[in-house]
Request: fold
Amino acid sequence: MKLSAQEVDSLIKVIRQYGQQNATSSIFVHFDKNVYSNNDQVWFTGYLLEGVAPIADYHTLHLALVNNADSSVVLQKKFLIHEGFAFGDLVLPDSLPGGSYRFVVNTNIRVAGFNVSDFIQPITIKSTTKNLLQPSISIFKSYNDQTQNGTMLLKVLTSDNRFVENAEVKYTIGRDSILKRASSKTSVIGEMMIDFPANKINAKNNLLSIAIKKDHQVKYLKHELPIINGKKFQINFYPESGYLVNGLFSNVGIEIKDLIHTPLLTKAVLYENGKAIDTVNTNSTGLSFFSLIPNIKLKYSLKVLTGDIEGDHYDLPPILSAGVTMHANNVIAEKDFRLKLQSSFDTEVHVVVHNYNDLYLHSEIALKHGVTQNVRLDLDSVPMGLNAITLLDSDFKPLAERIFFSHYDQTYQLQISTDKDVYGTRDSVRLDIHTITRSTNSLQGLVSISCTQANRFSELNNINIVDYALLERELVNLPANPMGIKVTDREYLNNILLVKGWRRYHWPLLRDSLFAQKKIINEEVSGQIRKGKKNVMLPMELFAIAKSTVHNISSDSTGKFKIPYSSLITDDKDDVWVNLNHKNASYYTLEIHDPAEELKKNIRAEHYEEVVANLLKPVINQVFPDPGGINLKEVVIKSDKGEKIDFANNGYMNNCGDYVCPNHILNCVNHFGNSDNTSPIEGGQYRKQNGGITIYHGCAERKKDANISILRGIKLGKEFYKFELDNKDEPINMSTIFWDYQQVLDSEGKANLNFTTGDLTGRFKIVVQGVTANGPIYGEHYITVKRP
Reply:
């Protein structure tokens, strides 16, 4: 029976409401590289791929740099989002210890109840100054029968193997909940014993986090504590339709990792009531699957084959007594998609293809108990990429679902070429970009472009917009693909979708909460005016001073106010002053709520699992030689609660972070952190990076009092540096020699441009990625720079 228009509207409403249960903003950020030094310049372009609110409501991109060692936010900035794009740059503090970090990105739009980050880019920071602390951790005793404690031995040596005594050590044991928190100091031989409650350690609290400080040197360690009689593996089961149904055939995907989240190439045995019935072999990504017709009266488990005869058995998910399942042999589709349906009872189902916003296909099919129904879906009206096929009952309640990739033949390829492969220093490069696809639609789009030293990219940290938009934002935590881009590797993609093409949320278990609405919140800076401990009882006026512009703000009759984002937009300096416009302003106080502070708390509490690979592990905390040959002095950077960097003790910068290099260039990027720099003088004339003269207008120190607040402004992206090629006295030693926030592609997906190399030699990687009207695009190309 054909559905009426009203029934179709109801069906679309069900699909969208379920999608809203798990909706978040989807933003991708292209960074110029993913390996930085600790005084490096960072360039980026943000792309809003999908929003949970109108695009005009997105105005602020929050960018935080987080140390993976302890999830501390070491740097936090705001940047303007305009029409779904954000452009920005920042300089990393030069006192950052080397190690694993991540950029965490959020927008001003938040879904109530969701504290997850909108985008995460893992990075590695390699220090330009040597860290003298070389700590190690090992098991001294796994269990003491009398104390029921275990003991870890911490050793701290210098890089030349001398003992580090009296080093301050702080450590915590636990993850979401903390079992123990303590501090102590190392002995005269640089050792310290750390006791842990061995009988209380499990997979949820076995993380030992250590911070070690000696003078100005800081080092972090993380270690997984041993679990007594605990499980040795992490095993996830993924029935093809989302769950197992009694008596119905199902493919069950499995994922096997060790306790530090490394995928395992291994063999396992499937048991039915203790009897071995099948053998499963995982691949290098830790994935595999097996077929099963489950019996609800029997118990099913999996055991990984190891040298341990006893071994641990891992139970399969619960079996539903009744339900519907689906099965597909091939989940990468081009013109059509074929699958098989089964039901444990006679029923009519709605088969719908959708993406949680739009409904593309709908059919009604009668299913008979024990009879397999073959279905073929024509995909002419279905867009390219991941789509969901969902089965619903007559009341539009969901029964089963899986994901497939449609129109794989229409995926884009980006062809990048240069006029030659080898260039000299300070040479001109011509870059040609061409998008290739079978689609006949316009290929007009916008891309960002970087050209950076090839050693500034780690494969472990690589994230590209095509994989992210088409796969990773939906199927999170995908294993790394040794061949590179995931989408273009058909074998990898097919294996992933056959195993991980389940829904992350089981519809039958969500029926009671399906129609609960999630509140969309537009986070803005707000505040309260108080007189003493009481709220004021009349409207008052405030000023917000940003970028030398004064913005008027009015409170309501209770003293509450909001500061529009447009009043917080600044130039290269972060500060925005907010003060009360009243002759007796000192009688009042301003309480400011900045969403960035709440984000900081959420980031610290957010669970983050670092990517781990068997053969490809990041090398951290090594000396990363400065390409310009400049030996940086040790610089102590202090932060207040707002993480505003204090340059006062550096001696060669003023309080605003401005400086003049030995070649008389203001804020010269080649000499950041150079001890020969001097502070600029107000009214002084200095050279600009790209030539010409500029007048320095001074640094205004702003002090906070009871009725004046200093906020972090929303920054605009500045232009990438243009260097004086003819000035041989000024070296061009930046690792990123070209960056373009936004390059337009014409209707044929083409663009060409020119840029120049610097003084650094070696291999350079060109990355081009962005969006077109029909989807994301990505490409890369390599060139070599040699001295003439």
In short: The longest strand covers residues 775-786. Residues 508-512, 613-651 have pLDDT under 50 and may be disordered. The longest helix spans residues 5-21.
